[in-house]
Amino acid sequence: MTDYTAPAGAPIWFDLMSTDTTRVTAFYGQLFGWDCEPPREEFGGYQNFTLHGRRVAGLSPYWPESGAPANTWAVYLHTTDAAASVAAAEAAGATAVTPPMTVGEEGTMAVVTDPAGASIGFWQPNTHAGFTEWGVHGAPYWFECMSHDYAASTAFYPKVVDTRLLEIGTGGDPEKEGPDHYSQLMFGDVSYGGIMAAGDLLPAGTPSHWSVYVTVDDVAATVAAATALGGSVLMAPEVTPYGTLASITDPCGAVINLGHPPIGM
Predict the structure, then answer these.
(1) How far is CA 237 from CA 31, 146, 229, 258, in A?
(2) 244 pLDDT higher than 70
(3) Rounded Cα distance, 219 and 236, in Å
(4) Distance (Å, rounded) from C-alpha 12 to C-alpha 114?
(5) What CA–CA distance (Å, rounded) separates 49 from 14?
(6) Cβ neighbours of residue 199 under 8 Å, at least 6 residues apart?
(7) Does residue 264 surpass a pLDDT of 70?
(8) If one looks up domain 11-125 in CATH, what number appears?
């Protein structure tokens, strides 16, 4: 296993709001080897998926009164001060959705909508440290902001979290392979996510959003397993300079991506 401790500003947690928690618990358990802790009634039935006995992701029943979309994954960035992060986000053009809220002894959460329209959360850990493994089967592989307004997104995040951007897009050069505009979010010399100019790639009506990639040992085999378990394929396995990637939905329609490192890594 590869231990992971989120630097301030980096992804620390991701969770799913699902219309059928029983069905998706079985799906992700068979797909990624995740177990699931019992629901926490004091937290609205919230559960933690675990991998190798460690918490890896969250699961919440869908509450229509929340106003949030059903069957979607949310991403949270590590903050040491949730109130300060929300204030910085608002000053940089975000809209607060969930103000800082203490979750028992677990930590403090908050959610904002960034200037490009993507929802992003902040997690200030206490007893709940977030996920603590990276890059092994069933653990996170990458996090990505799919943005309709690349300029707004790339201006926003360095103002709000302690990161610098490394532009690796092609700039429209047809001789280069990859997206036209793409920036990695750097924490020192390491990156755990990026921002893509995705307006031309997103289906009509799909807002800017953060997406999740989970590491799998065999992308093709995992895609086949997902369809056998009631999921569907959005993007078949594709070999890229950044690894073999694919995109699937779970049986309730939530989108999640798969990744396996490039050959030689």
Answers:
(1) 16, 19, 17, 9
(2) yes
(3) 9
(4) 18
(5) 10
(6) 147, 148, 149, 150
(7) no
(8) 3.10.180.10
Selection from 233, 207, 205, 203 nearest residue 221 by Cα: 233
Spell out the domain ranges in the chain: 11-125, 140-260
Nearest alpha-carbon partner for 244 in 208, 204, 217:
217
As given in the structure block, the two tokens for residue 244 are: 């073999």
- Contact residues for 223 (Cβ-Cβ < 8 A; gap 6+): 233, 236, 237, 246, 248, 258
Supply 132's token pair: 């603590």
pTM for this predicted structure: 0.94
HSE-CB for 130 with a 13 A CA cutoff: 26
Each residue of 31-45: pLDDT tens digit?
999 999 999 989 999
- Which tops the pLDDT comparison, 177 or 49? 49
Per CATH, the homologous superfamily of domain 140-260 is 2,3-Dihydroxybiphenyl 1,2-Dioxygenase, domain 1 (3.10.180.10)
What local confidence, expressed as pLDDT, does residue 66 receive? 73
Query: Average pLDDT over the chain, rounded to whole?
Result: 94
pLDDT surpassing 90 at residue 213: yes
Backbone angles phi, psi at 50, to 5 degrees: -130, 155
